[in-house]
């Protein structure tokens, strides 16, 4: 390969004199108070590029411009993204900008022409290594015919950049010219971390939980006008330009097809490309920076990479401003859609571990990508051993076992109805965990266990650092019952699987979606229907008012619980759905919603609630009776929540969950089947006696709580006219109202809204 000629350039970016402080907002730190991005000799005029945050009106109102001691009048004021330009008469002499008692002297710079006529790569470089830069340049020379590179090297004052190493690395890339532009000024966004931190990784797990330090030298570019400075000062005469990241690999053209540069040169506008992030499974040499060749995986549900673009600078858009991800407001050439790129995320974020870039459970090894890396970089990435997933076995409906695992505390009066209903629809196995019960809940399950109807365990959470529900699920994974189960679901005693097909049984549901491996049931929140006093009657019979099917708020409105096959596709049980997807099973998972429609891929790995694209109730609904009567709610609040043990169930929770806008009486058709199974359970004398004891304990606790002023005040408020009316208006409220509670709704609002159903 021929040698690469290296040209060094440092733009005239000047800090503001101390006397100019009043020209900047007080929130802008000293490092970001720039006075000039450059003064460039354009031949017939000299152009000053003024930076962001410098107030044009205040600056120009008092500005005096001198050259050689004589005052000079500005020719024109122009626009610059984030700043402005000021054209001055032509001349080589220095220009003195005087404002107030302070001044700044600038010398016009003649544009650099090292890249003239070249097909040029351009990239901003923060901490990429010489080797990474060379691999990127060599790849695009070979695949796209790149001839030159413009590297904008962003330096921190404490940073020592080895320019010689970069120049040496570029010598065997095939490029004929490289311009190394050193930026030694703070040009990054305020209050932002460096752009190579996990904060900007689109799929970085846990990134919102980390703390980041501001870095004005390496944060995402804030001085957008710098693109125009570069265009006029170092990119003048460039034949065509590709602006991308060192981490990006543009898709090679097919044999005989134009390169990206050729497309740009023939386009009447510009090209804008969308990319796909790619990831390493692990680095081949962990002690060294990642290379492009380390990347052999894609995320099946990840986001895309930010856009990159290509243009012929002297073409039809010669007067349109360059920006980081686009060119002005021009529409890109439709040919752009036929070309893409891959962003090597460990090169983009070199200080982050592979685990910080994307969840391992989302990464799918790609043999074609691995071959691509081997072909272009001479070494394949390290990939895990690929497992060929077994076909999904059919389940014999005559021996099918369906398991519920649940956690309870003080739910004594409501156990038998829930158990009877789910036995009636076809649940075969119940694994129950209890803790700290005072109303006989644990005693009831001991009795039921003695009859072979359930398996009861003390919740083991005290021996762990887990919340009760999570501890129970962890323990449940190890049980013989779970090992025998064909299907299982984690659900609570206030949730009822309401099946709408056939005879309302699980057999009918499974028959409607015979190939499903997971079925998500979306909550429908049932309110208290105006019921105040506790009665020993079926919950499903008393409470028929509920939320509309289409209601996105409160956040809990579309929560899901999931029936799933025990096939090993996921690593562990979860409250709302199984967790820890094993990526090799992506293609054999068949996850449907409550209408039998495919769930989006974004749900395969994470997510606990339905969306407008994934909700469905045609086949099955999960009726969620989270409140019951007003009096029973007092006991629920006193008991506390089983999973979210640190969250109070007070007025705001009642307000969020009390949905009474519509009536759904379909569950009344299931009362005969519930009653028949209930009668079987209650026929056991010891179980009947314990049920009655739990009912009395519940009534006693209600009476005790209502003697307390705080609970009586809560009772009065939740049974009042205002909250009853608001319970039918949830469709009118947004997220913030549900977070703030009913006090955030103006008094009288409930009476001013027309067409409130009173029935």
From TrEMBL:
Gene Ontology CC: cytoplasm; membrane
Membrane topology type: Single-pass membrane protein
Keywords, comma-separated and alphabetical: Membrane, Transferase, Transmembrane, Transmembrane helix
Domain of life: Bacteria
Protein name: Glycosyl transferase family 2
Organism: Pontivivens marinum
Subcellular localization(s) per the UniProt record: Membrane
Gene Ontology molecular function terms on file: glycosyltransferase activity
Annotated Pfam families: Glyco_tranf_2_4 (PF13704)
Signal peptide: none
């Amino acid at each position: 390969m021929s040698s690469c000629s290296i040209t060094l350039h440092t733009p005239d970016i000047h800090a503001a004199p101390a006397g100019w402080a009043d020209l900047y907002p007080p929130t802008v730190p000293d490092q970001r108070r720039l006075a000039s991005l450059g003064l460039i000799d354009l031949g017939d005029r000299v152009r000053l590029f003024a930076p962001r945050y410098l107030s044009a009106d205040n600056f120009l109102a008092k500005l005096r411009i001198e050259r050689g001691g004589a005052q000079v009048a500005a020719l024109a004021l122009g626009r610059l993204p984030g700043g402005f330009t000021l054209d001055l008469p032509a001349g080589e002499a220095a220009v003195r900008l005087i404002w107030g008692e302070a001044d700044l002297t600038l010398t016009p710079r003649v544009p650099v022409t090292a890249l003239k006529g070249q097909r040029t790569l351009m990239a901003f470089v923060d901490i990429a290594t010489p080797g990474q830069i060379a691999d990127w340049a060599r790849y695009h020379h070979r695949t796209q015919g790149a001839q030159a590179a413009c590297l904008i090297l962003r330096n921190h004052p404490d940073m020592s950049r080895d320019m010689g190493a970069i120049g040496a690395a570029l010598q065997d890339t095939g490029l004929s010219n490289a311009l190394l532009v050193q930026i030694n000024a703070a040009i990054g966004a305020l209050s932002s971390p460096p752009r190579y931190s996990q904060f900007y990784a689109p799929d970085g797990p846990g990134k919102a939980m980390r703390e980041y330090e501001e870095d004005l030298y390496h944060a995402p570019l804030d001085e957008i006008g710098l693109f125009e400075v570069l265009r006029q000062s170092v990119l003048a005469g460039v034949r065509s330009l590709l602006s991308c990241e060192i981490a990006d690999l543009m898709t090679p053209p097919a044999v005989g097809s134009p390169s990206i540069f050729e497309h740009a040169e023939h386009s009447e506008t510009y090209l804008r490309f969308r990319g796909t992030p790619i990831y390493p499974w692990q680095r081949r040499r962990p002690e060294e920076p990642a290379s492009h060749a380390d990347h052999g995986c894609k995320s099946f549900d990840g986001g895309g990479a930010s856009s990159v673009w290509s243009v012929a600078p002297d073409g039809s858009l010669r007067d349109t401003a360059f920006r980081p991800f686009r060119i002005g407001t021009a529409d890109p050439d439709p040919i752009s859609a036929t070309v893409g790129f891959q962003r090597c995320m460990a090169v983009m974020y070199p200080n982050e571990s592979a685990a910080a870039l994307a969840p391992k459970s989302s990464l799918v090894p790609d043999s074609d990508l691995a071959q691509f890396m081997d072909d272009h970089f001479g070494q394949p990435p390290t990939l895990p051993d690929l497992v060929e997933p077994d076909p999904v076995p059919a389940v014999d409906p005559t021996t099918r076992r369906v398991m519920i695992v649940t956690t309870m505390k003080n739910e004594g009066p409501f156990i038998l109805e829930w158990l009877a209903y789910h036995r009636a629809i076809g649940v075969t196995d119940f694994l129950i965990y209890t803790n700290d019960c005072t109303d006989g809940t644990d005693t009831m399950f001991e009795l039921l266990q003695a009859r072979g109807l359930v398996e009861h365990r003390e919740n083991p959470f005290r021996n762990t650092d887990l919340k009760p529900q999570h501890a129970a699920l962890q323990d449940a994974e190890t049980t013989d019952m779970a090992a025998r189960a064909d299907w299982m679901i984690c659900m609570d005693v206030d949730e009822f699987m309401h099946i709408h097909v056939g005879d309302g049984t699980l057999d009918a549901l499974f028959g409607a979606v015979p190939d499903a491996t997971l079925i998500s049931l979306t909550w429908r929140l049932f309110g208290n229907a105006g019921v105040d006093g506790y009665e020993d009657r079926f919950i499903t019979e008393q409470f028929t008012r509920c939320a509309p099917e289409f209601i996105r708020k409160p956040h809990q409105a579309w929560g899901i619980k999931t029936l799933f096959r025990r096939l090993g596709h996921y690593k562990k049980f979860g409250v709302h759905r199984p967790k820890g997807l094993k990526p090799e099973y992506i293609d054999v998972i068949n996850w449907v919603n409550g209408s039998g429609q495919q769930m989006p891929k974004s749900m395969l790995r994470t997510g606990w609630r339905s969306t407008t694209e994934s909700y469905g109730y045609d086949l099955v609904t999960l009726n969620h009776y989270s409140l019951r009567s007003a009096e029973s709610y007092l006991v629920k609040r006193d008991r506390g929540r089983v999973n979210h043990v640190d969250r109070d169930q007070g007025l705001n929770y009642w307000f969020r969950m009390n949905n009474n806008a519509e009536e759904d009486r379909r569950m009344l058709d299931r009362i005969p089947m519930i009653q028949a199974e209930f009668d079987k359970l209650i026929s056991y004398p010891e179980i009947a006696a314990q049920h009655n004891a739990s009912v009395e304990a519940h009534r006693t606790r209600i009476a005790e709580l209502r003697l307390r002023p705080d609970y009586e005040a809560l009772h009065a408020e939740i049974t009042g006219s205002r909250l009853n009316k608001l319970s039918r208006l949830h469709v009118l409220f947004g997220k913030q109202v549900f977070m703030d509670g009913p006090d955030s709704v103006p008094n009288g609002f409930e009476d001013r809204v027309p067409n409130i159903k009173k029935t």
